[in-house]
Amino acid sequence: MENIKGLLLFISLLAIFGLFMGSVSAASLNLTDAELASSGVKNYTIATSHVPGYVDVSNKNITTPSFLNTLTTYTVELNKNVKTSVTLISVAKPKSPSGSAKGTLKKSEYVKLASNIKNYITKNKVAPAYASSTLGKIRYESIVYIYSKIIDYYRINKVLPNTVLVSNIKGMDSKGVIIPTRQSTQDLTVTDVIAPATGVKGTTIIVPNTIKNLGNTATNGFWVTYYLISGTTNAYTYMGERYINSLAAGAIDQQNTQLTIPTNILCDNYFIMVNADSTGIIKESNENNNVMYSTAKVNIIDATNYRPVYITSDNINNTLVDNTRINNIVTALQQLGLFAVNYGLGPNEHYSILENITIPQNALIVDIYGGFCAGTIWEMNQSYYKYYKGSRSVFTIWIDTPITLDDIQFLPRAHDDDFTPLYGNPGGFPNFSDTNNNGIFEPGPGYTNGIIYPKQLLENDGLNNPAQFLINNGYHYLSLLNEDINTIVDSIFQEATNL
User: Fold this and answer.
1) Which of 6, 423, 436, 455 lies deepest, with the highest CB count within 10 Å?
2) Which residues does residue 378 pair with via DSSP β-bridges, in sequence order?
3) Residue 165 lies in a domain
4) Measured between alpha carbons, how far is 64 from 254 in angstroms, rounded to an integer?
């Protein structure tokens, strides 16, 4: 009876011990430690012509067969740009390594070979005595050396090598490689600051900036502070700050930071200074790289009574004529006391300027065209367009057209517009010309296999009363049969000052 009680007690203890052991998570090796260990194993093999019996890194003692599993796993995963830590497993060494292959393996083959080795180890819990390849049998020790070189190459270049040289390595030592424990470091720096071209007193600007932790240890929270530095007096003016909760080793934090320009600042050209860890709360290995200045300056203007004007133009005549037209308008507006800029020419400038986060949100965007395009007008009502437009105002001008926009009852799809979705499709034109009065839109050969051929449309889709469409959506416009600069300048001035 006593024997039975003792046996039951022993079984119970084993069960409890098993449950406890099952709750302990398996050890793993992160990529940084695997890279350091691979470098150590590679250098040991070069020096002794043998592979070590183990590698010790970050207080983890890993047998070489187990490390081979880690190396091949990382090779396969890094080829897919996966960098997840690899779980360490117990792997026996092969009893009788064999093989003498030498030569060069291409990336595609050594990655496939790594997958085969990894699968073999997972199934048998022992490292292979050799690996079959196009070069012949590659000996176990050579395999360890090959994949140590591959991961060490990745450590240096952050890409896998295109080829790897296979050497015939023989011999397994009982001695191992000990990788010195890395000193924990935190090192914050600013890697990028972009200043907008223009800023208006009392309004916000967007400043793209990037903070990076060059250290090998994650930081706690810290402040990033922003200043305007006068290009004339070097005076500092505080603009704002943001808080980063933590930044992992090697990680970056990129933000398009919205900052307010003080109303009491002098009109001038200013650099933007960004200071990471401005309160000095993080103990860093390098305290001298926390500050960065924008390479360009932001022109701070006082435009409390008007909107700054940015002018784009479609390709109307030629580059010289079109640019001269814009520059003449800009000069006239500047003489009237406005801030005005020639933003550029091209068929997509009217949209790219909206995507430019450095253009102030109180800006007046002036788009000049030489002809009417239903797709361009229809686009102005789309959610994506309004999203990028933000609170900016858009004023559209048409010049030298045969008729004015007000005289158009139906504006059909332009002959080169194969991008606006067809009537009846999501985002497509809202109207069409029902030439046969049957109430059905019939594109005919102009719409084949999902492709629009505008010139071959049997019935055209487009916009009814485009002028009223713009008005209904809150847009102002100017439509001229000529290109009278005085009328254009006066109209832009009224739009810019009518706040």
Assistant:
1) 423
2) none
3) yes
4) 40
Q: Given this model, what pLDDT does residue 490 score?
A: 95
- Judge whether 224 and 275 are in contact, CB under 8 Å: yes
Phi, psi of 166 (to 5 degrees): -100, 120
Alpha carbon distance 37, 149 (integer Å)? 11
89 domain residue, yes or no? yes
d(CA 422, CA 124): 61
**Coil, helix or strand at residue 333:** helix
Residue with tokens 């190459």: 153
424, 451 contact by CB (below 8 A): no
pTM: 0.58
The average pLDDT across 91-114 equals 96
Tokens of 167: 């050497």
Q: Clarify whether residues 114 and 169 are in a common domain.
A: yes
Distance spanning both ends of the chain, measured CA to CA: 99
Q: CA 275 to CA 294: how far, in whole Å?
A: 12
> Which structural domain range is residue 480 located in?
309-409+465-497
Residue 18 covered by a domain? no
Handedness of CA 340, 341, 342, 348 (dihedral sign): negative
Other Cβ atoms less than 10 A from the Cβ of 496: the count is 24
* Token pair of 207 as six digits: 């400043």
At position 62, the amino acid (one-letter code) is: I
Q: Residue 210 sits in a domain of what CATH number? A: 2.60.40.10
Three-state DSSP state, 136? strand
Task: State the Cα–Cα distance between residues 274 and 282, nearest whole angstrom.
Answer: 16
Is residue 213 domain-shared with residue 290, that is, in the same domain? yes
Residues 217, 152 share a domain: no
Which tokens hold the place of 319? 């580059």
280 shares a domain with 132: no
Number of domains composing the chain: 3
pLDDT given for residue 6 in this prediction: 46
Last residue of a domain, one of 125, 148, 178: 178
- When pLDDT is averaged across residues 319-340 and rounded to a whole number, the result is 95
